[in-house]
Amino acid sequence: MNAFRLGRVLLAALLLSWQIVAPLNAAAAKFTDPAITPIATEGPLKLPTQNAVLQGPLASATLPTIPTTLSIADAAQLQAPLTAGPDIYTADFQKGLFDKLVDISYERTSGIVSMGLLKRFRVQAADLLDLKPGMTVADLMAGSGESWDYILPKIGRTGTVHAVDFSDKMVDHAQVRHQTKFPDYQVNVLNQDATKTTLPSASVDVIHSGYGVKTLPKELRPALVAEISRLLKPGGRAVLVEATLPKNKLLALAQNIYMNKVIPFVMKFLPGEYSAFLMINRYLRDFKNMDELAAEFKAQGFRVGVTPLFGGIAAVLTAEKPASRP
Ligand SMILES: C[S@@+](CC[C@H](N)C(=O)[O-])C[C@H]1O[C@@H](n2cnc3c(N)ncnc32)[C@H](O)[C@@H]1O
After folding, report:
1. What's the CA gap between 77 and 79, in Å, rounded?
2. What is the pLDDT of residues 87-106, one digit of tens each?
3. Hey, what domains does the chain have and what are their CATH numbers?
4. Closest atom, ligand 1, to C-alpha of 110
């Protein structure tokens, strides 16, 4: 397939998927306070046909055949936790996985796949940090510093970011980003486990974590929250943003189709090895939403709020450490 035809197919697939997601999201937005509803297990969901969706020059493009109906039962099955395969929750497996994600340009790929939404959510999370010049921030599971654009200008050159990540390649790229893009800012990149850093106790004003907690093994959540509690000054705030499964079943189905059918299909045509990227779907299925993590923060004495973003395809968790312990 030549590059021009490949480009047309990719663009058409992206537009097609957006045509499905956007109306479903608009419908989902009309529901107020959606209850936690299990996905229905029967009945086909009618999707628009390709001809109805595509207009203009794309209408005459040669498109691959995409099924126009999808059983809700099939889609619900895609959300079931997977048990087979390697233990995807060991630190070694995850370090290897995130190293591989760097190779396929994690930031660019996730930006394209999310159609810019991941970036938008990063901005929203950074806004909730209520940053001021001179503040000290811990960016846990920082990757290669994908959120620094929205943090560093606000804390200025007198502020400090401690960026913690345990993937060697992410850490290398974070150092390059610091040196090339933010050489005048104080950034301390640490290749460490976010659940047990060497940073001093009560040394940071706020903690940020973007798209990292879904891969953390369940049994390590108490340790992560305890570490956040240890690092924060009294009255400090943590803001964690993560992809989630929407509680609204229509939107959950749309997300399912997009993540588990459209994206893997499109990636088949791209040069490069994207299986590491597709693994994120497995973690998302297990993580589901912020509820359990929020409960852990509450159990450890934090005041907690969870805000769904874009109908619940992501959420931001805000946790405030009490100004003084009783
Ligand atoms: C999906 S990436 C997110 C990167 C970045 N924060 C962003 O906003 O895109 C998740 C990152 O968390 C890191 N990570 C996962 N578990 C970790 C842990 N226990 N300690 C340190 N880093 C961890 C991974 O290495 C990876 O770089």
Report:
1. 5
2. 899 999 999 999 999 988 88
3. 3-86+249-270 (no CATH), 104-244+289-320 (3.40.50.150)
4. 9
